[in-house]
Amino acid sequence: MTPAGAEGRVASRVEERVASAAARRDALRATAAERGLDAVLVTHLLNVRYLTGFTGSNGALLVRADGSGDLLGTDGRYTTQAGAQVPDLELVIDRGTVPALARAAVRRGVARLGYESHDLTVDGLHGLERVLADAAAGRPVPELASVRRAVEAQRAIKDDGEIAALRRACAVADQALAELAGEGALRPGRTELEVGRELDARMLRLGAEAPSFETIVATGANSAIPHHRPDSTVLCEGNFLKLDFGATVDGYHSDMTRTLVLGHAADWQREVYELVAASQAAGRAALVVGADVVAVDSAARDVIVGAGHGDHFTHGLGHGVGLEIHEAPGIGQLGAGTLAAGMAVTVEPGVYLPGHGGVRIEDTLIVTDDAPELLTLTSKELLVL
C-alpha cells in the first residue's frame, strides 16, 4: 500500500470513530431532553472514552441537550492527543476538568445539570455544588440531577464498530490458546504461574493491548476455586486444568474459559464436564431478544440443579462485556432486565467440587434477532492433552 493509501485508511478510521462517538452523544442528548436536563456532565473516564474516543487519564465531558456545543475537558498533558482523537469537540484545557466544565455550564445558562452519581464521591459532589454556587455569583445556581447509569445503559447495546473490536479480541484469545496447546506448553511439570504468564505474553504478541483481567490458571483441587489466582502449583497428569482469560483489543475485552484434562480423564471428570457442557448449551440457547436475564440463568442452572449439583454452581451465569470486563447486563438469579439485540454477554456455568476439581465453560456471544453470534470459537469438546 502506498503511503497516501495508508494515510487515507487512517483518516477513514478516524472519521468512523468520530461519527460513532457523535451518534452516541446524540443518544445521551435525547435521554437528557427526556429527563428535562439542559446538559449532562460525564465524569466516568470509560464513559468519556465511549462518547468521544478520548483515551487519556484525565477527562470529563459536558453534553448539551440542545446540541449547541459539547465540551471535552482535560489537562495540558493531553492537548495534542485530545485534538487528534476528538477533532470535532471544543477543548477546555484545565487540570481541574470537572470544575472547569461546571463553570462552563453556568456560563452557558444550564439550569438543570445531570451528573453521574455512581462515579462522583460524596466529597466530589459537594465540591461540584460549591463550584456551581461560586460560578453563579448571585444568579440562579444550576440544579443537579443524577442520570445514574444512563451511559452504561447505552453501552450495553454494542454498535457495529464495537462488535468488530470484540471479534478481534476474541480471535486473539482463541489463537493464543491454540498455539500454546499445539506447542505442548500445557503439560505436566509446569506451574500455573508459568502457563499464565506464557498465555498473557502470547496474547500480547498477537496484538492485544493487555490481558482482559488477571488470567486464571487453576489445576487439580485449585480448579474447584472459581477465581483461583495462579501460583506455584505444578500441573500433574490426571488433573483438570481450568483456563479463564481474555484479550483487550481497541479497548474491548474478550472473556473465555476452557477446562481440559492432562493425560487420562477419569469417569467422574467426564461426567462433570458433560454436565457443565449441557448447562452451557442451554444457557446459550436461551439468549434470545426479550428474554429475562433471570430466566436465562435458570435455563442453565436448572440443568445443574437437576443433576444434584446446584450447591456446586456458586455464581451467576454471565455478564455483559465491552469496554469493561464486567458491565451490564448481569445474568444471574439477582439480575434485572431483559436481553436486547446487540448485547455482548458471557455464558459461563460451572460445577466446583471442593478438594477434587471443577469445570467452567465460558463463551462471549452477541445477542441477535436470530441465534446468538458466538465470538469465542475454541472447541468445547473435552480436550485431553
Automatic annotation (TrEMBL):
Entries under Pfam families matching the protein: Creatinase_N, Peptidase_M24
InterPro entries the record matches: Creatin/AminoP/Spt16_N (IPR029149), Creatinase/aminopeptidase-like (IPR036005), Creatinase_N (IPR000587), Pept_M24 (IPR000994), Pept_M24_MAP (IPR001714), Peptidase_M24B (IPR050659), Peptidase_M24B_aminopep-P_CS (IPR001131)
Domain of life: Bacteria
Oxidoreductase as UniProt keyword: no
Creatinase N-terminal domain boundaries: 24-157
PANTHER family in UniProt: AMINOPEPTIDASE, CYTOPLASMIC PEPTIDASE PEPQ-RELATED
Keywords from the UniProt entry: Aminopeptidase, Hydrolase, Metal-binding, Protease
Protein's organism: Blastococcus saxobsidens (strain DD2)
Name of the protein described by the UniProt record: Xaa-Pro aminopeptidase
A GO term, aspect molecular function: aminopeptidase activity
Domain Peptidase M24 residues, every copy: 165-369
The keyword Transmembrane is annotated on this UniProt entry: no
